């Protein structure tokens, strides 16, 4: 049988469950997940390999109207996901009516490649609402195939996976067959720390934070990590650290536990907090953190 391979790019509004689905497909926690919008900031590849196929999934940031440079570059990742897709997964959640950005919506409407509309979080809905929503999307996007799913409860996920496999073009693998992602180890360290910050800090704080791992030293039985948490303003530094360092300590402890699972090894983390004034609007800083800038 001929080998199939292709890019399967997940796009949609913030918080609809894109990262949850990608992790479910890959079977690893490649993307961080929180109940806050704009959790994902990068385009992250998750590669699923079989003997006769390679499915290259892309998780992308939720679509928003950019208010500062960082968000502009997040939307550049979304644009790039339109450009190389062999199959487009447009994810919406129960109750949602349309994509917040007209331009992106038009691209989906007029897509020349197959679009699967994944209606997610159906575990939160009843049959009547579900039928209504399916009809709504059928009217809005007649060219899309509609699949109700629950990424969280793994409902219909396998069926969607099999359908994507059918749609993949014949092609040789793009990546080595033992490769799981395009991102280096340090990226997952940064993201895990950022997830804990999204979980434990309020308002603007998580959106003002970037994490940079300065040291990643792997020995036979331990990984030693030193990471810097970057904030935009002096006042935010104190909030991150907390009373006698308690808040920062919690971030470190929780990140360490997750990373020990991820790397299957003992992990030691040292965390620092630094002020990097207005990094979100600074092209040079953004490039340094892996955004297009
Ligand atoms: N009830 C329910 N919750 C879900 C489902 N899928 C995801 N969630 C929850 O929805 C929230 C957002 O999930 P994410 O996977 O981070 O969503 P996202 O689309 O990647 O979000 P951004 O990266 O911010 O754009 C989390 O709290 C998930 O646990 C689902 O099928 N059912
Ligand atoms: Mg996400």
From TrEMBL:
Residues 120-123 are annotated as: G4. Residues 38-42 are annotated as: G2. Residues 59-62 are annotated as: G3. One of its GO terms (biological process) is ribosomal small subunit assembly. Residues 12-19 are annotated as: G1. InterPro entries: G_ERA_dom (IPR030388), GTP-bd (IPR006073), GTPase_Era-like (IPR005662), KH_dom-like_a/b (IPR015946), KH_dom_type_2 (IPR004044), KH_sf_prok-type (IPR009019), P-loop_NTPase (IPR027417), Small_GTP-bd (IPR005225). Belongs to the TRAFAC class TrmE-Era-EngA-EngB-Septin-like GTPase superfamily. Era GTPase family. This is GTPase Era. It comes from Flagellimonas hadalis.
